[in-house]
Specification:
9 helices; Alpha-1-antitrypsin, domain 1; alpha+beta; Antithrombin, Chain I, domain 2; 30% strand; 6-stranded mixed β-sheet
């Protein structure tokens, strides 16, 4: 519970019990802690790390949030209007809600902890550590900014040293920050704070990475693609041989989902997974299979493997406010019950409630590399095996899922489903 004036700090953030199916406009304020400071030599300030990196502790929470969110994403009017195409960022939504949860208390803290795994003031070092460990993925940038009309508690500002804080005056300042932190991939928020908006928090993620082994452009050919609507279109299909060790299957209701993982360049690279289910399988289990832990998969029983994947680009804008009830967020969004008493100084505490949550996400995949970005905003108002076959070729010529994972391969930074004929778009990662 986040303390009010005179109440002692709780000893640890609120954390829900693990799910039984889970494996166990200013410059940022200066901070003198590194991720290793938070979970290695120094005493653990949260009591939750137990000597392990924060990201390893909470990667399961991020994946579960993504799984709980999928049905709402896939049934969103914006996705329906796009013929079923969707891209979202479970990691971006987790980081935004977890940061807001640092100022929650009472029932509001309880429901946010049930969704993100933690809430309350001592959650702040965890949120900081997770963001820093994600940003250690090569070519990935992560940032959070807060703009407010009321003074925030000094203790909260000090507890989030990597967050940029500024006054909520000109929305153009927020747009400029978003454009800068996403390298121009998202130019502005599709949201404007109203006069009653007290606080806007934005998390930005951006990835611009080259493949460790780029696709050879001369192998890209026109090929047929069967859409989710049953029509056929001609697309630009890339082709590459892949190590068979980077191909596995995930069992799902309705059949096995094949997953292939392609690494980006770097010593600590992002890992991009493409998942292909049986014809007619709904998108949710295919997307979940793409970000499922690699150890949950069954190695492909082949000696060689190749993939054919279309060039594609997706962009989705989601009004996540409509998804909150399905995520269990009700008290935080109700002005009669919301309790964010740890956000503001003085008498404005009772006016805070979650008024709007949204996310804009894009993903582009081509021969040279992958680009992805997300801006997430929260606005408050008030047996002996048989001899393996010799060769597997995965042809992504029908709807498929894509998940961009962090370097640990445990956190879905971006998740997408291509239902319609892919738009080849621009070739990312030319730099």
């Amino acid at each position: 519970m986040l303390p009010y004036a005179g109440e002692p700090h709780a000893s640890e953030p609120r954390a829900r019990e693990p799910h039984p199916t889970e494996p166990h406009p200013t410059e940022p304020l200066p901070g003198d802690s590194s991720p290793s400071d938070l979970h290695a030599g120094d005493p653990d300030p949260t009591g939750l790390f137990d000597g392990e990196p924060a990201l390893r502790q909470f990667s399961g929470e991020i994946r579960e949030l993504g799984s709980r969110w999928l049905d709402s994403v896939l049934s969103d009017p914006a996705v329906a209007a796009a013929g079923g195409d969707a891209v979202c960022s479970p990691a971006g939504l987790w980081l935004a809600l977890a940061a807001v949860g640092c100022g929650a208390q009472g029932d509001t803290a309880d429901e946010l902890a049930d969704l993100t795994g933690l809430a309350g003031p001592e959650a702040a070092p965890v949120v900081t550590a997770v963001a820093r460990e994600l940003a250690a993925t090569d070519a990935l940038a992560a940032a959070t900014g807060v703009w407010t009309r009321v003074p925030l508690r000094a203790s909260l500002v000090e507890a989030l040293p990597d967050v940029a804080f500024g006054p909520l005056r000109d929305p153009a300042a927020i747009d400029a920050w978003v454009a800068r932190e996403t390298a121009g991939l998202i130019g502005a928020l599709p949201f404007r704070p109203g006069p009653a908006t007290l606080l806007v928090l934005v998390n930005a993620l951006a990835l611009q990475a080259r493949w460790a082994r780029p696709f050879a452009p001369e192998r890209t050919r026109d090929a047929p693609f069967r859409t989710a609507q049953g029509t056929e279109a001609t697309v630009r299909m890339m082709s590459a041989d892949v190590p068979v060790g980077d191909v596995w299957t995930i069992g799902a209701h309705g059949g096995d989902v094949h997953v292939v993982e392609l690494a980006c360049a770097g010593e600590n690279p992002a890992l991009v997974r493409f998942a292909l289910g049986p014809e007619g399988m709904p998108p949710a289990p295919v997307m979940s299979a793409a970000w499922a832990p690699r150890r949950a998969g069954t190695p492909a029983p082949y000696r060689r493997a190749a993939v054919r994947i279309p060039r594609f680009g997706l962009r989705t804008v989601l009004d996540v406010t409509a998804h909150l009830p399905a995520l269990g967020i009700t008290a935080a969004a109700d002005p009669r019950t919301a309790d964010f008493g740890g956000l503001a100084e003085g008498g404005a505490d009772e006016e805070f409630f979650v008024d709007r949550v949204g996310q804009e996400t894009l993903l582009r995949v081509a021969e040279e590399g992958v680009e992805a970005a997300a801006a997430t905003w929260v606005a408050t108002r008030g047996g002996a095996p048989a001899a393996p076959p010799s060769f597997l070729e995965l042809v992504y010529d029908r709807p498929f899922a894509c998940a961009v994972m962090d370097a640990s391969g445990t956190v879905p930074l971006f998740a997408a489903y291509q239902a319609t004929a892919p738009d080849p778009g621009e070739n990312p990662a030319r730099a």
